[in-house]
Here is the input.
Amino acid sequence: MKKVKKFLCIPLLFAVGAFCFAGCGGEKLQKVRVSEVTHSVFYAPQYVAINKGFFAEEGIELELSNGQGADKVMSAVLSDHIDIGFAGPEASIYVYNEGKEDHTQVFAQMTQRDGSFLVGRTPDDPFDWAKVKGSVVLPGRKGGVPYMALEYVIKSKGLTPGQDVTLDDSIQFALMAGAFTAGTGDYVALFEPTASMVEKEGKGYVLSSIGQEAGEIPYTAYFAKKSYIQKNADIIQKFTNAIYKGQQWVANHSAKEIAQVIQPSFPDTDLELLTTVVQRYQDIDAWSKDPVMKSSSFELLQTVMTSAGELSKKAPYEQIVNNTYAEKAKETNK
Here is the structure.
């Protein structure tokens, strides 16, 4: 799978760190291939787990790649090009509903809210969502949770997408910021640190947290094929332990401390901007405190998907979510 050039150095750094740890401990680490949906500060607990050595402590050498979209991440998992996918749980719901026998299961949740922010062309504080009426918004890929969460919020404000608001999904996720700053659309939904970078350059202004408006949704989680989980239960447990350690560390440290730890994963972003971004995510309670996915938030996700017209049949929680490893991680890593 092709990786973004900008991040080619990251897996190498992780491998070097893992090698040093293995050399000191005298134990060979197990390589686990993971594809993340995008590279964002939104996944800070993961980068904390990497940079604080929590994966290495669990005997794992992480090979991380950027999938550039949930659909691409899922394809890589199903084709065995990677071991673990990191994207929205909606991908697992779609696969299950297609009737695939060896479907994927979510075993660890990372984020509990949408991580995107609505960015406009002018400062507007306090922002009123009624102002998006008659505008063009760049929402991301139709069928993806960023698109659906934004659509859900727009509807909750009494507006009708396609009638009161135009959602232009013709632009690829990775190109939306560039398209917006070049003059396309009135608003755009951007993740961090991109949103803050656009704002810092004076080319846009962060107006509202889409995640805060949408409510608690299991937005991003780790998943693998059922067969992989069954054959590699020990790896899944160790992986989940490392994620839980990262979540707990983030929950107990300041935005500046978190920014300092994750900075090696974002070498092109200065510490001040990283701190601002982390603080934004802390303010909206974006990160799960543990990897357990609650049935109530899973149901809200399916409600959002149904409202968007992307889900005709709900998938059973117990088939999609496997909390066995998350519960054990909480119990054994107190």
